[in-house]
Fold:
Amino acid sequence: MAGLREKAREHGIAAVAGIPMQLADEKIGALDLYACESREWADREIAAAQIFADMATGYIVNSNKLRQHEQLNAQLQTALDSRIVIEQAKGIIAHARSTTPDEAFRLIRGHARSNQAPVRSVAKAIVEVGLRV
Structure:
């Protein structure tokens, strides 16, 4: 099996420089420079590549943070939407049964358990299609 050096040469690569991409102590990758002729990399080339690596690191880290925030916002919105429909269903059942919202929720939860359905699905059926428990 050919080594890394032989494989690189087969693809026309004769020189490589790896520039670390890191933020504080967190390493996220490397920016690699390739040349088709054997050579030494000048300090100014390495310094310029480090600037590009730092910029790319910033973009990657910020992109990951943005994605995490978007996921959290979506989860919170789903939770809020679920809470709204559950509260509406509690009100409908409490009014229909002349009981408290807490008792209405117990009835909804009991119906959900006995039918192996999520509470949100039962609440949605109460609100949207008139299910009564």
In short: DSSP finds four helices and two strands in the chain. The longest strand covers residues 26-35. The helical segments are 4-10, 43-97, 101-114, 119-129. The two ends are 70 Å apart (CA to CA).
